[in-house]
Specification:
single chain, 183 residues, mainly alpha, 3-stranded antiparallel sheet, 9% strand
C-alpha cells in the first residue's frame, strides 16, 4: 500500500493506475479483514488522495463517486482511532466535501442514488457538504498559531528550557523549567 501511496497522483495515468491497483487489492483483502481494519483504511485514504489528484485536473464522475465512497469509509474508521480534532480528520472531511460538491454540481442523480441514506436529497447533501467544510476549517484552526513552542532536551541538572519560534522563524529562549518535582 505504501509503495502505491508514494506514486505521484498529479499524473492522471498514474493516479488512475493507483486507484485501480488499490481497488483490486481492497477487493481481495476485504473478505479477510474487518471493514475497519487499518490496512483497509490506509488503502481508502490513498484512493481518496489519488482521486483528489485526478479531479484537480479534470472531472470524472466515477472518480468523484470513488472519492466520496473512500472518504466515507476512512471517516468511519477514523472515528474509532483518532480524536475528532486530529489533522487527518480535517483532510478527510475536506475530501468528502469536495466529492459531494463535485457530484452535486455534475451528477446529482448519481449522488442521490448511490448514497441514499445520508446524501439522498439535495438538502441532505448540501447540508453535509457545508458541515464537512466547517468541520475541516475548525480543526485546521487548531493547528495554526502565531508561534510554536519547542522543548529542549533536559540538561545535566534535569532542567529544560522552552523556546519560542516566532512567525519570522526566530528562536526566543525563555526561562528554564524545573521538572524535578515529578522525579
Amino acid at each position: 500500500v505504501d509503495c502505491l501511496a508514494a506514486r505521484p497522483t498529479s499524473n492522471p495515468c498514474v493516479a488512475l493506475d493507483t486507484m485501480a491497483a488499490l481497488n483490486k487489492l481492497r477487493s481481495e483483502l476485504s473478505p479477510l479483514l474487518h471493514p475497519r481494519h487499518l490496512v483497509i483504511c490506509r488503502m481508502n485514504r490513498v484512493i481518496a488522495q489519488a482521486a483528489r489528484g485526478l479531479l484537480s485536473g479534470t472531472f470524472n464522475v466515477e472518480v468523484a463517486e470513488e472519492l466520496v465512497r473512500a472518504s466515507r469509509e476512512v471517516r468511519l474508521t477514523q472515528r474509532l482511532f483518532l480524536p475528532g480534532s486530529h489533522y487527518h480528520v480535517a483532510d478527510v472531511a475536506e475530501d468528502l466535501a469536495v466529492g459531494i460538491a463535485l457530484l452535486l454540481a455534475n451528477d446529482r442523480a448519481r449522488l442521490f442514488r448511490t448514497f441514499p441514506e445520508d446524501l439522498g436529497t439535495f438538502s441532505l447533501a448540501t447540508g453535509a457538504e457545508a458541515a464537512l467544510r466547517k468541520e475541516a476549517a475548525s480543526i485546521r484552526e487548531l493547528y495554526v498559531e502565531e508561534s510554536f513552542r519547542v522543548l529542549s532536551p533536559p540538561s545535566a541538572d534535569g532542567a529544560q528550557t522552552t523556546s519560542l519560534i516566532t512567525p519570522e522563524g526566530q528562536l526566543q529562549a525563555s526561562a528554564p523549567e524545573d521538572w524535578s518535582i515529578f522525579d
